[in-house]
Design a protein that fits this description.
The protein is mostly helical and 496 residues long. Among the domains are: 1-183 and 459-496, Serine Threonine Protein Phosphatase 5, Tetratricopeptide repeat (Alpha Horseshoe), CATH 1.25.40; 292-374, no CATH class. The chain is built from 18 helices and eight strands. It has helices at residues 50-63, 67-70, 72-78, 98-101, 110-132, 140-165, 188-205, 220-233, 237-247, 292-296, 314-319, 325-330, 381-394, 398-412, 428-442, 449-455, 459-463, 480-485, and strands at 21-22, 41-42, 85-88, 272-276, 309-312, 331-333, 352-354, 376-380. Helix 1 runs antiparallel to helix 5 (110-132), helix 3 crosses helix 5 and helix 8 packs antiparallel against helix 9 (237-247).
Length: 496
């Protein structure tokens, strides 16, 4: 029996601790894993067979949908600080999240620790795979692919860390003894170099597509697309252009209906480059653990659809041009009726919610996290096209830049003539601004905007009115809990 990666669950592991047990919850048979009554497999009996390797790699994907990776910690660090999103919910509910919106969150704020720990949990699982699978006697091509998948996820987690905190500890192996646990922060240039190497290694091995049984695993396009994004943050425009040009030959395309492309029945569609796989399995709440949609669902509906956090701002609402179908596909308005026929309460706490995390009411199952089956879109082909456009413009190729940019805009017209005209300017600065604006409206509410503006060098102008300060807020504080556990080996970022 093949185990679909959406149907696995790994118990939460401590930060950079060795894994003593692995718990896999399959969708099809309760007795899939014959283990002791505590449903744990001891590490001493693990890492022996190809089946063990499969379980270990599946656990990496399962961990990506946990709370720290997709819920409050991730939204606090990567989304709410931008100008397109704010805390939401009722004023007194989780009011500490406002401190991320006005940049007053201190190193003691638990969401920093939650985000940090989630990324290092991912890295820990990847390092275990990379350290242990090479010694297993198994199919050689599958072994190589599993190692490449682990390198992709490790690179993804380190990218999230270095983008958020700057210098971070770079751990590329499981610690062998106590002397290897407490390591200092690594200069971010070295972290980025390790990320790029992992992605190069992964892209050289990963297949462009999978069969249905393995849908959702990292692909060659995912590794190259993520590498392009990393290179964009480093200003390596030649590399961004080369990588995105290559991804554009791999069969991806824009899904015709923007709103539908984010629904659960359109997951892993032709536009998807990489998604975090989430699932709702009846009688298996452990596997149905994603709270990505639950924390963002519109409040006050029947059935209860969520907590109402991470909501769009009036600034985002005003950013769309007339006729842009992405506005109503991104913003769920109080009192509206969705294309799926769901009436949003007219008395909801907030005037707007994130429609990209919306799950139709018919998919809500009492007793389970609302929207537990909603995948998290990490990288879409539209982003690849916009990276291609930006790189082409920076390299003085406005013709290619406009071609890729206008391909994204064409879908946003929704087939209506006379709206969202093509960008025609060849002026480098004007085209740059048009591409940046397109990134805002195309990728809104996808945890891209905040760090995108910082890497563009515009944060003081865009976020300054909310309290953002140059020389400090380019990165977040290192969690004080991690500094304390390191006995001072980890140092704090300036200004915190």
């Amino acid at each position: 029996m093949k185990l679909n990666i959406k149907n696995t669950y790994i118990q939460k592991l401590g930060l950079i601790t060795l894994c003593s047990s692995i718990l896999i919850m399959p969708a099809c048979k309760k007795d899939f894993l014959n283990v002791d009554p505590q449903a744990k497999q001891q590490a001493v009996t693990f890492w022996k067979t190809q089946d063990d390797a499969t379980k270990a790699v599946n656990s990496i994907y399962a961990n990506l949908r946990t709370w720290g990776n997709t819920a409050f910690p991730a939204l606090a660090v990567e989304s709410i600080p931008g100008d397109d999103a704010e805390k939401g919910s009722s004023p007194n509910d989780a009011s500490y999240l406002n401190n991320f919106d006005n940049y007053t969150a201190s190193s003691t704020e638990g969401q920093f620790g939650g985000f940090w720990e989630a990324q290092y949990q991912n890295i820990n699982l990847c390092n275990q795979v990379l350290d242990n699978i090479p010694a297993i006697s198994m199919d050689a091509s599958l072994k190589a692919r599993y190692l490449a998948e682990a390198k992709f996820v490790r690179a993804y987690s380190y990218f999230r860390l270095v983008r958020a905190f700057g210098d971070v500890p770079l751990r590329l192996n499981v610690p062998k003894d106590a002397t290897e646990f407490n390591i200092p922060r690594t200069p971010k240039a070295q972290v980025y170099a390790a990320i790029e190497k992992d992605l190069d290694d992964a892209a050289a091995v990963l297949p462009p597509t999978y069969t249905a049984a393995d849908l959702g695993r990292a692909t060659k396009g995912a590794a190259m697309g993520l590498h392009a994004k990393v290179a964009m943050y480093l200003g390596k425009w030649d590399l961004v252009l080369s990588l995105t040009n290559s991804v554009m030959t791999l069969g991806y395309d824009l899904y015709p209906n923007y709103q539908e492309s984010f629904r659960t029945n359109r997951e892993n569609n032709i536009e998807s480059v990489f998604e975090i796989q989430c699932v709702l399995l009846l009688n298996n709440k452990d596997a149905s653990n994603s709270q990505y949609s639950q924390v963002q669902g519109a409040r006050g509906n029947t059935p209860d659809t969520g907590w109402g956090f991470n909501v769009p701002t009036p600034a985002l609402d005003a950013a769309y041009e007339a006729g842009d179908v992405r506005r109503n596909a991104t913003i769920l308005y109080r009192g509206e009726t969705t294309p799926q026929g769901d009436a949003i309460s007219t008395t909801a706490d907030n005037p707007m919610y994130n429609e990209k995390s919306y799950v139709p009411f018919a998919n809500i199952v009492s007793g389970y996290n609302q929207g537990a089956d909603q995948n998290v879109r990490v990288l879409r082909f539209a982003d690849v096209l916009l990276m291609n456009a930006e790189a082409a413009n920076e390299l003085n190729n406005p013709t290619l830049a406009k071609t890729s940019l206008n391909r994204v805009r064409a879908r946003a017209r929704g087939g209506v003539a006379g709206v969202l005209p093509d960008v025609t300017t060849s002026d480098k600065e004007a085209l740059r601004q048009a591409i940046w604006k397109e990134r805002q409206v195309e990728l809104a509410m996808e945890s891209d905007r905040y760090f995108d503006v910082i890497r563009q060098g515009r944060a003081a102008a865009v976020f300054g009115p909310k309290g953002w300060k140059a020389g400090k807020n380019e990165v977040w504080p290192i969690p004080s809990t991690e500094i304390d556990k390191s006995a001072g080996t980890l140092t704090q970022n300036p200004g915190y």
